[in-house]
Amino acid sequence: MKALRYLALSVAAALFLVPFYLVIRNGLVSESEISATSWTFLPSSVRWENFAELFSDPAVPLVRSMLNSLVVAVLQTAGQLLLCSMAGYGLARIPHRYSNVVFYLVVATLMIPAAVTFVPTFVVVSTLGWVSDLRGLVIPGLFSGFTAFLFRQYFLNFPRELEEAARIDGLGHWGTFWRVVVPNSRGFFAALGVIAFVTSWNQFLWPLVIAQDQDSWTVQVALSTFLTAQSINVHELFLAAAVSVTPLVIVFVAMQRWLVRGVTESGIKG
């Protein structure tokens, strides 16, 4: 029985890794081999010089785009963890006559399609002069109603005994949050941090509209430039996709156990 289980897991893992292999394989061969009629799983020759061609392409500043994506993802992740955790803790633990009303309003924002708020957000950002600026890419994503909702659900189930002990020691809500709650919630913070980082890294439509200058492109915008109405640079597109997904793979492999733990601790039932 155990052998069948390992066999099934091995087959599932192989099927999961095949797309990654195909992306890397197509990125390290010539254009003619990609479009050849007789396709082979293993390439006849590996063109390592494709890396040099990719990173020296003057039309697509891939390194700069990846750095921009890294800055945006890190700042948005840090902002969401800071702002949403404080909002979630306030809604879960600080008594106020309108706390439920505020919570319902936050949840209501989750039902508003992104297309509805896209144009008003762009108008605000454009008025502030943040087009082709990192501020226009980062600031609109510093808060997430869904992340605040998850933090509230988690803090509702946080052990009250630890907070009561902190109150006895003279700590208020602020001190209790930073000195007791946050240190004992690092797993949940890490899980939501991974989700926020991956979401921010994969954003395309908003950076496509805001990053109008080549120096402000994110990696997803840079990838789209390999596919135009005039030409398609297939092997560079595949190789750039493989390079751009590497940070996400590293983050996921390093933090995957926190993802499972975060789901189980989120407080969402059935």
UniProtKB/TrEMBL annotation:
Membrane topology: Multi-pass membrane protein
InterPro entries, alphabetized: MetI-like, MetI-like_sf
Major subcellular location class: membrane
Pfam families, A to Z: BPD_transp_1 (PF00528)
Residues covered by the ABC transmembrane type-1 domain: 66-256
Tagged with keyword Transport: yes
Protein location: Cell membrane
GO biological process, one term: transmembrane transport
Keywords: Cell membrane, Membrane, Sugar transport, Transmembrane, Transmembrane helix, Transport
Record field: transmembrane: 66-89, 101-125, 137-155, 237-260
Gene Ontology, cellular component aspect: plasma membrane
Family affiliation: Belongs to the binding-protein-dependent transport system permease family.
Protein known as: Multiple sugar transport system permease protein
